[in-house]
Amino acid sequence: MSRTVEINENLWTRLVKFAELKGHASPQQFIEETLERELAQPDGAVSDQEITHKMEQLGYLDFGRDI
């Protein structure tokens, strides 16, 4: 199934140049690969370890350290 998306001329020109520079066969290939990569990641996805580390840095967690 094919869908159509309108892209303004300035953005399309930049997209074509960028896709070629990055070695993509076509702007469509670049767009599809970029969307697949972005959609594979949940919004703002971070690991539990990253969240824990950030909370420790902010002082919200203290694992056995005397204050």
The rough form would be described as: elongated
Structural class comes to: mainly alpha
The topology string of helices and strands comes to HHH
Average pLDDT over all residues:
82
Give the structure's gist in a few sentences:
This protein has 67 residues and is mostly helical.
Description:
With 67 residues, this protein is an all-alpha fold. The chain has one domain. It has three helices and no strands. It has helices spanning 9-21, 27-39, 48-57. Helix 1 crosses helix 2 (27-39). The model has no long low-confidence stretch (mean pLDDT 82).
Keywords, separated by commas or semicolons:
67 residues; mainly alpha; 54% helix; elongated
Question: Layout of helices and strands, plus pairs?
Answer:
Elements: H1 9-21, H2 27-39, H3 48-57
